[in-house]
Amino acid sequence: MASVTKGKAREGEKEAMVRELEEFTILADEFKSDAATREKEAMMRKLQEFGIRLIDEFESNPATGKVVAMENEVMVRKVEELTMRLVNEFRSNPATASSRPTTGLRTVPVEAQHSTTQKAYVLTTQPQDGAHCQDVECILRSAAAKQELIEYPMFPQPTALLASREDDGGQGVGEASPPYRIAPIPSKGLGMIATRAIPQGSLVAGERPLLIVPKMQRIPDSTKFTSNATVRRRRLAIFNEVEKEFRVAFARMDPANQEAYMALHNAHRDDGSGPLLGIMRTNAYRVCILEGEPYSGVFKDLSRINHSCSPNTIYHFDRASLSMLFFAARDIPAGAEITSGYCDTLQPHATRAQALKPYGIRCTCAACINPTASDANRLRISHVTDAVPAIIRWAGKPALPDGLLLRPTLAMLELIKTEGLEGDPVYVRVLYHIVLVLQVLAVTGCSDSSMLLLVTKQWATLRGCFAKPDREEQTKFMAEMESVTTAALARSVVRERAVESNLQGNIQ
Ligand SMILES: C[S@@+](CC[C@H](N)C(=O)[O-])C[C@H]1O[C@@H](n2cnc3c(N)ncnc32)[C@H](O)[C@@H]1O
After folding, report:
1. Which atom of ligand 1 is nearest to the CA of 265?
2. Cα(353)–Cα(347) distance, rounded to whole angstroms?
3. Is 265 near ligand 1, meaning CB less than 6 Å away?
């Protein structure tokens, strides 16, 4: 299996691999109901995580996935190891051994393994804070997931900007209203249009989902399969069961939210997905992780945002307000379409085109129409790595020229802007590199502080558009700042001494 992950696997091989991994997940569920020990449960979780990540990678990018090839290989080896252990345990476990055939995963009978006591999911309406039409219907895997959702610090906060239905009847005009309207876009269906200029870093929209569901559709405990059920049949059965689950949650939703949900686009009408699942699969954003499991949500307005390979937004899910926040990645003029990236926009055109297929999208943006130069640019941009250690080394060596790192980092920033990738984390990373270099130059008196202030402000604004850094990231950031400042001070002392000795030399 590892050989097909080396980047250039054919479409059929990838599909087979995805199908196999889906089966691992099914197997994982079956096994879970029999797992008696902690070790087995931990194994299951790991296996599922790897399975989910791999399926994600391969579905979104059939050539290499979003991760680099090395990482892919390591992941696949781990999945293989875990699966072997799992299957061996399965066979040697007296509770399951007799019912397990020895002919591989495809023919594993499911019916003998289901726990009838295990509850499949928990339905809850959150946050119930009194905001009209702003409650979110949630299908959660467990009561523990619900606890994790509602025990988040400061939960529930109001949404940052109410959706247009709340304050001006959806007209989208006036300063208090959202700066957008939903309108038809040629050859894209509906889309989101800026009704006024939105400066870089400003909030475009804050909206709670209509429905939150687990991202991975699992086989419910009640599902029965015959021992020779094909993958396709199992898949359809899963779709059916999920649709039933969704229907129960849908029935609990506010009628206005039900109407908004059913009005959304469905690109999965012909693949066996029911209407509720089809709409979820077309419109969902990943929202949060609960009990280690990713969840998706669909939105009345945000799900109208169309794809671009040069998106003009940055978004993250804010757990405290249970809402998705969209920000302008660059200045958005009034009348421009507001867009997001449905795929990894640093990947080449061919890979992006594959990832967009499930949405029925044939992208006609500038980077897709004329991909040769753009692919080369994006490849260069994707190679940007953490340059902080290099900056610290440069700062600590006063003999190295002042412009050594500034010129290439500024050039990279321009390249990212040319490709319209200000919404990608790489842009913030390069801004950070420039801030550090300018700091060193300012301390050594080699640049004026106005540029430093300007770039620092831009970096801080855009950094705030992404999810808050966790404690580990914050600690790393503080340590980096300290190292750069220390190196800059040492550099400036050496420079001052050199100037002094030059002066003395001139006087003598
Ligand atoms: C999440 S919906 C976006 C809103 C949708 N346009 C609507 O009318 O509700 C995704 C669907 O929008 C369309 N779409 C999104 N981005 C597009 C693009 N760049 N070009 C063409 N169609 C696009 C596709 O039909 C896709 O399945």
Report:
1. 9
2. 10
3. yes
Q: Is the pLDDT assigned to residue 115 strictly greater than 80?
A: no
Residue 469 alpha carbon to ligand 1 centre in Å: 31
Q: Among all chains, which residue has been given the structure tokens 């699992």?
A: 218
H-assigned helices in 275-402: 275-283, 349-356, 366-369, 371-382, 388-395
Query: 303 in ligand 1 pocket by Cβ < 6 Å?
Result: yes
Distance CA 224, CA 164 (A): 45
The pTM is what?
A: 0.76
Is the model's pLDDT at 100 over the cut of 90? no
C-alpha angle with apex 187: 211 to 61, nearest 5 degrees? 60
Question: What DSSP string runs through 111-145?
Answer: GGG--SSS---EEEEE--SS-TT--EEEEES-HHH
Q: How far is it, in rounded angstroms, from Cα 318 to Cα 285?
A: 13
Distance, CA of 119 to CA of 95 (rounded, Å): 21
Q: What is the bridge-based pairing of β-strands 323-328 and 313-318?
A: antiparallel
Our answer on whether the CB atom of 310 is closer than 6 Å to any ligand 1 atom is: no
Asked whether 322 and 136 are in contact (CB, 8 A), the reply is yes
Element containing residue 80 per DSSP (H, E) = helix 69-92
Strand partners, 350: none
Query: What φ, ψ does residue 317 adopt, rounded to 5°?
Result: -90, 130
Find out whether 40 and 88 touch, Cβ atoms under 8 Å. no
To the nearest whole number, what is the mean pLDDT of the chain?
81
Half-sphere exposure of 128 (CA within 13 A, CB side): 6
Residue 348, helix vs strand vs coil? coil
pLDDT digits (tens, 9 = 90+) for 439-495: 999 998 888 789 999 999 999 999 999 999 999 999 999 999 999 999 999 999 988
3-class DSSP assignment, residue 439: helix
Q: What residue owns the CA closest to ligand 1's atom 22? A: 188
pLDDT tens per residue, range 231-258: 777 788 888 989 999 999 999 999 999 9
Torsion angle, alpha carbons of 155, 161, 162, 168, to 10: 160
ipTM surpassing 0.85, yes or no? yes
**Pocket flag, ligand 1, residue 188 (CB < 6 Å):** yes
Name the percent of the chain lying above pLDDT 70. Answer: 69
Maximum CA extent, the chain: 98
Tokens of 125: 């309406």
Atom in ligand 1 nearest the alpha carbon of residue 307: 16
Per DSSP, the three-state class of 293 is strand
pLDDT for the residue 159: 86
Burial class (CB in 10 A: 0-12, 13-18, 19+), 483: middle
